[in-house]
């Protein structure tokens, strides 16, 4: 806890007694009260970008996060990037050289992924509602298609015959358990995702009968989970389910994508996931594999966990005003670029993201302010936070913004210009 | 109530006993079980557009809604369009010929508005956090700038001097009351919007001293309100506040923009606003105006109310699947195009928008289905609704989609193509 206090004071974010605080990390160094991104002072980077607002992603931090994953996870585990988390082409190019595969969710993502060094056979195309055009392109590219329904399987058969290409397919399973404490549940009960576990053996046998290249199973049970026990439990149940499906279908599972769901701390009181404990449990599970999975390749697929903490959203204070005893910093950025930070993306109760004044970190004077954008009442980046005292022209930084930021936001709302994204 | 039942059965939407129902209207005629938009069958329109999903806005319905407003509101009231609700250029072009003014919120919106027949002097530029570039362009265009803070006033002075143009300004007031039962509160208490009512007289006198062209006041107190009493109350208080500010400042108010806030029924149990009662109350208030407002021009500014009910979102069923006893229609559309219908835009509890199968309205067979999109668990267009029995290829229609649809959605999420918008 004293470490956390130390870091907060470093960030210039004073603690409020008896209230949960944001977890801080030292990923962005501070020099002369100014944070650095990619070894560049925020003020200089802002001049280089040439306009605010913008998103900046730190190349070294992405690399470092992938290294940590490699260190903590068993060697046997392959690491895939779910590019929906951040599809910026430069980011995908960088990550493609560091991971073992890429998960894509649309033809738009396929195009970006195919421009990297990643082999198409290491790409998986997941998601319900793929149209025939997307499926055809994926088959032609040699990408592994994650089958989400029995109808989709038949559609792939017809398209592949027309294209005269043997398709590579995996089956997404809707498990009969779900990841506890997950921010977004994707398994258990009736779902639009994947084939219900109880139907899967029939589907697997049909794939083999049809002569398709069967790549394996995808079993995703949730996302944004910070509880190590819940993830450990999901991993154990995922392996059990894969064994059961292999037995029931009498078909070997070449590859098992165990999903991801590793969370990052966004809100006050949240702590980082204990990655080492997740890795140790996985190693333990792999050490006592059932015979059915001894030849299987295991994949962990992560999006948010790889990029979120490497990114910041930067906007500029355009106005500072008091209204009936409250202070407002009005910025040129807001919910149209960063819907999640405004509290309008999947959250039930709005909480503040970690925010600071990026060019005034650790200065003596602080004040309680609300940081708002140019749109409507929903456009709130920080609700009455104690921040370094800011003036017009200062730079507001929203941390934890490398995933589900720009592309998950209503960029055209009120017809403001689209912000830049830079990888530094 | 019997009328409502009749209309629902017309839409092919069976009633569920003891549950609140969606209000229906007859704005889109039905022929051979297919709805018509702009006198065109939905199936034919879909062929014409050439791809799904798309948004379609009915030109006649927009015209009709503006006619109703003209009929119900006093002649003295000018009608402005808040183009943030739907900034599609063709829509703005159409509306510009029918209303008395346009409210813009960004340089992007200014550009679209300036391409219409509307005079710049009838445009008002509102919103906190306008940057210097936007302000300069607005001053040069001769648009009325709604001042949102004292700092913004001084900034306009400096820019106008530099441009050697006398700026036209109005003052947005943060009222000391708020619109009750409003979907989005924009007045009362500390706010980022406008000048606190108690500071306004000082600001008004400063504007006159500076020799700016003072156009009047904007007093907005909320939006999406369906309760006629609340709107009547807000109108009365708005006039009282304007009188008070005119007295306290001894400055006449050339124009008073009373805001809008007229709601439309989205969710089960909601009924349309009683527009006639709003108009009668306004007439009553105008009949007994205080002397300070006898020369004032009154404006009602509406966005959603003009366009929302004239628009539909159309997507196609790509897959139909059962999962553990529930039926899912997987479509090519979803929350990336229509965030509000997915329940992720300002709503606390998710409720269904009115949805139907647009080419099977009123068929005998119905079933309870969930309509989902290709993205994530949040991507839900209809949660277990009773709809006409649909198959792959059928067209899902989301009604009440003419406002805050496409531009208020995270269009680039998962990198799917941007959908078309058509005005028919």
Topology:
The structure is a homodimer of 424-residue chains.
Chain A: H1 2-11, E1 30-31, E2 34-37, E3 40-41, H2 42-49, E4 54-57, H3 59-72, E5 77-82, H4 89-96, E6 101-104, H5 107-114, E7 123-125, H6 132-141, E8 144-147, H7 150-163, E9 168-174, E10 184-185, E11 195-196, H8 200-209, E12 213-219, E13 222-223, H9 228-249, E14 255-257, H10 275-287, E15 297-302, H11 304-307, E16 311-323, E17 326-331, E18 355-357, E19 366-372, E20 380-388, E21 395-398, E22 420-423
Parallel strand pairs in A: 4-22, 5-6, 5-15, 6-7, 7-8, 8-9, 9-11, 9-12, 12-14, 14-15, 17-19
Antiparallel strand pairs in A: 1-2, 2-3, 4-16, 10-13, 16-17, 16-21, 18-21, 19-20
Helix pairs in contact in A: 6-7, 8-9, 9-10
> How would a textbook summarize the main sheet of chain A?
8 strands, mixed
CATH class of the largest domain in chain A: Alpha Beta
- Quickly count the domains of chain A: 2
Q: So how many helices of chain A? A: 11
Query: What does the overall shape of chain A look like?
Result: elongated
Strand content of chain A: 15-25%
The most extensive interface between chains reads: A-B, 67 and 67 residues
Mean residue pLDDT of chain A: 93
Contiguous runs where pLDDT drops below 50 for at least 5 residues of chain A: 1-16
Number of strands of chain A: 22
Q: Name the CATH architecture of the largest domain in chain A.
A: Alpha-Beta Barrel
Helical amount of chain A: 25-40%
SS-based class of chain A: alpha/beta
- This entry's quaternary arrangement is homodimer
First CA to last CA of chain A: what distance? 31 Å
Radius of gyration of chain A: 23 Å
